Amino acid sequence: MKRREFVGLTSLAAGALFLPSFPGFGGSPVDPERLLEGVDPALKKRLADAALNAAKSAGASYADVRIGRYLNQSIFTREKQVQNIASGESFGAGVRVLANGTWGFAATNTVTEAGLAKAAQLAVSIAKANSKVQKDKVNLAPQKGYGEVSWKTPIVQNAFEVPIAQKVELMLAANAKALDNGASFVNSALFQINEQKYFASTDGSYIDQDVHRIWPTIGVTAVDRSTGKFRTREGLSAPMGLGYEYMTPKAADKIAGPSGTGLIGYKNSYDILEDAALAAQQAKGKLTAKSVTPGKYDIVLDPNHLGLTIHESIGHATELDRVLGYEANYAGTSFATLEWKKQNKPYGSKLVNIIADKTQPGSLGAVGYDDEGVKTKQWDIIKDGMLVDYQKIRDQAAIVGQNESDGCCYAQSWQDVQFQRMANISLKPGTQKMSVDDMIKNVDKGIYIAGRGSFSIDQQRYNFQFGGTVYYAIEKGKIAGMLEDVAYQANTQEFWNSCAAICDESDYRLFGSFFDGKGQPPQVSAVSHGSATTRFNGVNIINTARKIG
Amino acid sequence: MAILSKDEAQAILKKVLSFSTANECEATLTGEIGGNVRSARNAISTAGAVENVQLIVESRFGKRSGTATCNEFDDATLRRCVQRAEEIAKLAPESPEYMPLLGAQQYLDGSKAFAQNTANITPDYRAQQTAASLQLCEKRKLSSAGFLVDSTNFVAKRNSKGLEAYQAGTNLEYSVTVRTPDGTGSGYATADYNDISKFDAGRLTQIAADKASGSMNAKAIEPGKYTVILEPAALVANTDASLLQALMSAMDARSADEGRSFLSKKGGGNKKGEKLFDERVTIYSDPTNADIPDRIFANDGRPQKKVTWIEKGVVKNLYTSRFWAQKAGIPDIPPPGGWIMEGGTQSVQDMIKGTAKGILVTRLWYIRPVDPQTLLYTGLTRDGTFYIENGKIKHPVKNFRFNESPIIMLNNLEAIGKPQRVGGNMVPPLKIRDFTFTSLSDAV
Question: What pTM was computed for the model?
Answer without folding.
Answer: 0.93
